[in-house]
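Incident log, structure service

09:12 report received: a user says their structure output differs between two submissions of the same chain.
09:20 pulled the input from the user's history:
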Amino acid sequence: MAKQDKFEELREKYSDEELAESFVFPHGLSEAEKKKADRELWEFRKKLLEEKTTEDRIYSGLLRIKYQITGYLETAEFVPGKDVSFFLQEYLRVTHRKQKELADELNIHRTRLSRIVNRREKLSLPIAYRLEGHSGDLIPALLWWKLLQKEVEQEIRTDKKERKKEKDKLKKVAYYG
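09:34 re-ran on a clean worker, output below:
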């Protein structure tokens, strides 16, 4: 039986609340005990974070960016501001690089990187390949490219002014429908 079918069968027998309760284990702690346990968990997590090396933090950050891009690409919705520039800024922050440093490491002029980061120039395929290599292949060029394509698709859907400007340049219309 498929998971979806099993879930539907359970929903016929039980309410959503009953299903949720069956998968969530009550802690059985008093309010004071729960606060103490939460504090201990936070202290433990904080200790683990403090023990991470810089390389571990960068690796974790790059994976987070990869999964954020992947998750965003799986949605049909375009979110303004969630574009190549946004994720490139995150990339800079996670890798602890200034734009000039990253531009040097990618072997591109710093003004070009600045133009991409500031949404004045589109990411090119060669730079997407370089970002892939720079991330140690953690963030594939294809993700950067698909992110750019989602941005371009939105432009095509919404930029009526540019569409009209380009149509006005036509000398002859091929089809008179």
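09:41 both user submissions now match this output. Likely a transient worker issue. Closing.
09:42 reviewer note: The two ends are 52 Å apart (CA to CA). The mean pLDDT is 90.
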